[in-house]
Amino acid sequence: MVLELLFNPFSLKKKPWQMFIVGFFNSIIALILSYIVFKDAAGLLSVFLVVMSTLPLFYVTIKREEELDFKYPESRILKEHGKVLFFFMFLFFGILSAMVLAYVFLPQAMVDSVFNLQQSAIMNVNNAIQTGPSSAVVTGNITSISLFMRILFNNFKVLFFCLVFSFLYGAGAIFILTWNASVIASAMGNLIKTEVAHAINSIGLPSVATYFSAAAFSVFRYMTHGIFEIAAYFIAGLAGGIISIAFIKQNLKESRIYMDVLDLVLISIGLLVVGGIIEVYITPVFFG
């Protein structure tokens, strides 16, 4: 209860950048506690602890968004949802930043313990790129239309589960998104370590500039397309949460609810398509 009471969700919507701090420090605390208490299951437990600390913020925010459907026209509602999207994205990047730093600077034994499941997920994704569709989230280099369709199909599955989790659990999509953040952090952290190792072999001891350039390369490599996918998943989670709250409050007879949810789902689908095109045809050109 202490962590979730430190920030007021109503003021955070006006200052969404503060959600970066929420995500960052909640993740650091979750990583430390999970490693100390359950070392063998630290990877999954840290995700659950982050979810537990942020779930009240998500629920209150989504509940407030559902109430807006009866106050404003659709254009104004979508504008308000846009503010919430920034709110969620800052949270995601706070979680991601904390986990990337942990992956890069923690001793390798701790990294292997905390990110073991995430590393396995990345291996599954790399195999899926070669063999066909899978349920994984992070994707690698895409070079053909068939692989583009696989990635798009996979991303649509993640979108579907964001909707389902949010509908069933109110703000349940935060679990999928936090897990996704931990997997992406593992991939980015590994890339940073690889780039730093190459720099060490070339110029000797690493400097701050070496880490900065490696981190910048890693961010652009995964976030050029990833930001569209993550935004789509958050929007889908918001849509599922709104209809979940409407169901609890017996507001499903209101057509404005369905119109709002449909708009959000269509926007999320469009973002996934854009993200897929960038991942397939643009990202490999610059970061292949």
Task: Count structural domains.
Answer: 1
Task: Using the CA coordinates, give the radius of gyration.
Answer: 19 Å
Low-pLDDT ranges: 133-142
Write down how many β-strands occur, each being a DSSP E stretch of 2 or more residues: 0
N/C terminus separation: 44 Å
The helix-and-strand class reads mainly alpha
Largest sheet: none
Outline: globular
* Overall average residue pLDDT: 81
Chain-wise SSE layout:
Elements: H1 2-5, H2 9-12, H3 18-37, H4 42-68, H5 74-105, H6 108-114, H7 116-131, H8 145-169, H9 173-203, H10 208-248, H11 255-281, H12 283-287
Helix pairs in contact: 3-4, 3-5, 4-5, 4-9, 4-10, 5-9, 5-10, 7-9, 8-9, 8-10, 8-11, 9-10, 10-11
